[in-house]
Amino acid sequence: INELTSPGARFAVGVAEDADVGSNSLQGYELEANGYFAVEVKESPDGSKFAELVLRHALDREREPSLQLVLTALDGGDPPRSGTAQLCINVTDANDNAPVFAQDRYRSSLREDASVGSTVLNVSASDADVGTNARITYGFGKMPAKVLHKFAVNAESGMITLQEALDFEDARGFTLLVEARDGGGLVAQCKGEIEVLDVNDNAPEVTLTLVSSPVQEDAPAGTVVALLNVNDPDSGENGEVSCELLGEAPLKFAELVLRRALDREREPSLQLVLTALDGGDPPRSGTAQLCINVTDANDNAPVFAQDRYRASLPEDASVGWTVLNVSASDADAGTNARITY
Hints:
Elements: E1 10-15, E2 26-31, E3 37-43, E4 49-55, E5 66-75, E6 82-90, E7 100-101, E8 105-111, E9 119-122, E10 125-126, E11 137-140, H1 145-150, E12 151-153, E13 159-162, E14 173-181, E15 187-197, E16 205-211, E17 215-216, E18 224-231, E19 241-246, E20 251-252, E21 255-258, E22 269-278, E23 285-295, E24 303-304, E25 328-329
Parallel strand pairs: 8-15, 17-23
Antiparallel strand pairs: 1-4, 2-5, 3-4, 5-6, 7-10, 9-13, 11-14, 12-13, 14-15, 16-18, 18-21, 19-22, 20-21, 22-23, 24-25
Subcellular location: Cell membrane
Protein name: PCDGE protein
Organism: Caloenas nicobarica (Nicobar pigeon)
């Protein structure tokens, strides 16, 4: 009898025979006490009495897959005599149970450098039915195409694997809607929450947004020489950046600002390398090169080659006679170094 049979259904169980006649013959039937069936006595046109089982309460194969009942036939003699029959009722399965996941919500963490094919989650569902009604296949519910391309689920085992590379900077987590479907079409759902863990896979990026070059050598301390932007898309310590300046230069951060006076005559240009280092393990770095030309300021007076020149001159020297050649130089450049005597 199928477990979905409605209460009130009747089942004939045959006729008992009694060779006696009259009141000594078969008079009725009794059924062993149980929670599902009752017995009713019916009389056929020829006067024989037969038994019908009447279903009083719905069956449940998952609770009781079979019933063993004793049916007793009684005559009307004194003393009465009886005969019994064993009734074996097998309750057949109906797809009245949907699959049930072991957990409503599954959680997993995955490094963003996890290789394609890595196991993300193992989901599991069971079904109290039997046969094809209990055969479960797994799949994804309705989700964005981006997520469906990222993950795959094994229809038989429920194992979810990674299909495309992860990127923490693009997505820090995913929510998966996983379905379990039995052979009768009933469906259960659970959620899988995937946390993407940051890996130090990005080097700091150093961008010079403003460079003042050339710089006048008499520019005062505090003059802004360059503006820079340092960015690292990683998170936590992986995104914490410190900077250092390679090259002897009178500068400081985060604006490149003069911290002491320049001297074009000593350094006509500054060749600098700016290095940004993050806090990852191992750390990653980014660099930017900077060339700052120093323009001349008239900060040097002319200097004679000698402090004192001496010469001898005959008294009959004619007008136009060369008496001395004096020479001076100026460490400045351009017009600042042009000397007149």
